[in-house]
């Protein structure tokens, strides 16, 4: 015989009204007379985000930044990164479309520069940082677009984006211009990745290699100067190029 009881059904008992919340056995039910009180907030919470006019990617595609503008943007971003680093955080996704700006008037092109999109920001001692997880944007869409504009893509491969070897071709181009990959990659890369990198380095004929003559140990990401150190560089004081 089917039971006349059901979940959510309210029954009047000796001490009040009970709501059936769970069936324990065929003829055993669990009910409670504890009321559920929903208190609506008097003022619903909201997040107000600061509005800025555009991002640096769009701005640089429309018109290249001057040397002075690059200095200004770079300083503001390094100052933002220094705040994060001083509090033991890494941004992980610094790229032109995550740099927001407000337009100025006359000869002043920008009045405000802000680093946005901290959704992937993690503590420096987190598993993501220690294990070398790939987080953020690929190298070929990074800040170098500020220098060249016009949607510049140094490592553009000769295959479409949906091609199986698209990523491999990009690594080959990277190695062609900036290779070989540093030996310190052994500290962070699994053997399978190291085998791929070794294959890429061997696949480039010597005649096609275009070594980056000014490359130094500081071009290895983990050995690069900190944001605080870069802010002291003479370039920001008009002494460098």
From TrEMBL:
Keywords: ATP-binding, Kinase, Nucleotide-binding, Transferase. It catalyses: L-seryl-[protein] + ATP = O-phospho-L-seryl-[protein] + ADP + H(+); L-threonyl-[protein] + ATP = O-phospho-L-threonyl-[protein] + ADP + H(+). Its EC number is 2.7.11.24. Pfam families: Pkinase. One of its GO terms (molecular function) is MAP kinase activity. The keyword Electron transport does not apply. InterPro entries: Kinase-like_dom_sf, MAP_kinase_kinase_kinase, Prot_kinase_dom, Ser/Thr_kinase_AS. This is mitogen-activated protein kinase. Residues 1-236 form the Protein kinase domain.
